[in-house]
Amino acid sequence: MIRYCTKHDLEDILGVVNDGARAYKGVIPDDRWHDPYMPHDALESEIAAGVKFWCFEGDDRLLGVMGLQPVEDVVLIRHAYVRSAMHRRGIGGRLLQHIRAFSDGPMLVGTWAAADWAIRFYRKHGFELMPNKDARALLHHYWDIPDRQIETSVVLADQAWLAPRDAKRAVAPA
Fold this sequence. Notes:
By secondary structure, this protein is an alpha+beta fold.
């Protein structure tokens, strides 16, 4: 079952994120890895910044989470994780399909450049990898992340973003 997460789900969201993020250990730069990957105060900060989470429940617990954050003229996919024991069971795809129904406009997602499995996942679901120059401009414009993370990340865009854009929607300079 997929449902909107509430404040009562915070610890379970952290459990999913921190378990799922273990895949990054030894893959992303060591200076970007933290244990826990997302501490409680960071999750609260993300929610305060407008990230809304949906969760996939099964066996009476959260198995996957995916956040949406409206920013200006786009919606960002944020903090999409599935418990490591539940990978490759379609949970991420079902969450993505579900949250797309909540977005009228274009969607962007940022992920680590070294996370080839995440890039494959989004490409499988119709997102396209943005050229590095555009990705850096997008990361500077739409995300509030450290420069070091921008250096080591990529952006993928859905078809609504890739469709012809007017001048207002052009990639903003950094």
